[in-house]
């Protein structure tokens, strides 16, 4: 039984988001807006199958994947790159490796109690986001 990520998760902290945005070449005007957003993560999970939406008042980002199956991800509305993404389990953690133009790109996501933790990394930068589950 894999971990259960189902639910709506509201951002409570977002550390070093600016660093990640810089690392993927997001322009100043967009960064200025994006840094203040409270993101909401909506996850529908069926075993290893995930439908995910990251929502905000400014832009939304959707990505669907099956754990263990590499796919082509287009980061539409983010940095608009095409990358090859593979998500795997590391115990109860989801680990994504995103191969493309940017080195060491990926994320790790896991649950602790009613908190969802997401670490996004690109090159030598790490952004740490925490979301709280909506009751
Ligand atoms: C979509 C809400 C944020 C919109 C910000 C707009 C512009 C900034 C451009 C790039 C910011 C860098 C990364 C975006 C951060 C979060 C988006 C989703 C990250 C992701 O892939 O999460 C996974 C794991 O939760 C989705 O399955």
TrEMBL record:
Pfam family membership, one: Lipocalin
InterPro entries for the chain: Calycin, Fatty_acid-bd, ILBP, Lipocln_cytosolic_FA-bd_dom
Lipocalin/cytosolic fatty-acid binding domain mapped to chain residues: 6-133
Any one Gene Ontology molecular-function term assigned to this protein's record: lipid binding
Family: Belongs to the calycin superfamily. Fatty-acid binding protein (FABP) family.
Protein name: Retinol-binding protein 2-like
Species for this entry: Salvelinus namaycush
Lineage: Eukaryota, Metazoa, Chordata, Craniata, Vertebrata
Gene name of this polypeptide: LOC120028966
């Amino acid at each position: 039984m894999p971990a259960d990520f189902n639910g709506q998760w509201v951002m409570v902290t977002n550390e070093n988001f600016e660093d990640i945005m810089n690392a993927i070449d997001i322009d100043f005007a967009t960064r200025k807006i994006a840094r203040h957003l409270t993101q909401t993560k909506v996850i529908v999970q069926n075993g290893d199958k995930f439908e995910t939406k990251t929502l905000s008042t400014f832009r939304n980002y959707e990505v669907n994947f099956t754990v263990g199956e590499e796919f082509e991800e287009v980061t539409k509305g983010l940095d608009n790159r095409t990358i090859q993404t593979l998500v795997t389990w590391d115990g109860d953690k989801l680990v994504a490796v995103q191969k493309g133009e940017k080195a060491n790109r990926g994320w790790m996501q896991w649950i602790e109690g009613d908190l969802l933790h997401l670490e996004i990394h690109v090159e030598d930068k790490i952004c740490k986001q925490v979301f709280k589950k909506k009751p």
